[in-house]
Write a structure and sequence with these properties.
The protein has about 300 residues and is of the alpha/beta class. Helices cover about 55% and strands about 15% of the residues.
Length: about 300
Amino acid sequence: MFKKIAIFGVGLIGGSFALALKKAGVVQHVVGVGRTAATLARARELGIVDTITTSVAEAVQGAELVLVAAPVAQTETILATIALHLQPGTVVSDAGSTKSDVVTAARKVLGDKIAQFVPAHPIAGRELNGPDAALADLYVGKKVVLTPLPENAAADVERVAQAWQQCGALIHQLTPQDHDSVFASVSHLPHLLAYALVDDIAAKPHADVLFQYAASGFRDFTRIAGSSPEMWRDISLANQPALLNELDAYITQLTKMRALLAAGDGKSLEQIYANAQQARHAWMRAIEAAESPSKQGGD
């Protein structure tokens, strides 16, 4: 499918994308571009990329697809450098967890080349970072949300979709605004809460005792607090309005539950717990049903 792909950011997301396409046998050559020589060298050592370069012109030259898989705050700068060398026929996409800010940045720096940019967001990850965290099957059965622009050609959107499908992903589409609203609720807020809880406990005078007795419940709730602080700082600020709305709603819920607890209203607390349990069970069943066919097909 692809003779050459260039990936800016060869860590977990970009590295897994490259490994998946290589495993599927649909890319001949992958060029890695990054901020540090050591990271690029490690990616090449692991077979994630075939060549590495610090030259944007060299990376983009002849590439059919360019993926920006760097923290969202770096997207505008990266796209600005790509724009100088972007040739007709090359499609650029990203893997950012926010979309409205990315689209705004793309319009600013790409100008009349904006039609060549197809925004995307793979809904998969791990709490580990860097090339060593990359997995060839990271995206199998996982969703990738495309947020196409009015200027995009249908063939370019399809090219990006097919690349992710070759990784085993399931393709969905949202507007950039709807995307940011949805993920503020189900992704960005949970990360904020996990970081807040661990930071709060770590700051207590007897933190060592608390961590000594923390077990599976604490581990499961806070797993995502092991994710990249830099990345989640950028995501939080990039999606600030929607995240603030979700945080305010959550604070309202906590205030309600605190009042029930203070009043000893066990019946009402149990009803909230039961509603949450039922909703989670339904969600897990839906996830398992969606992922099962893809996993079977990939075996």
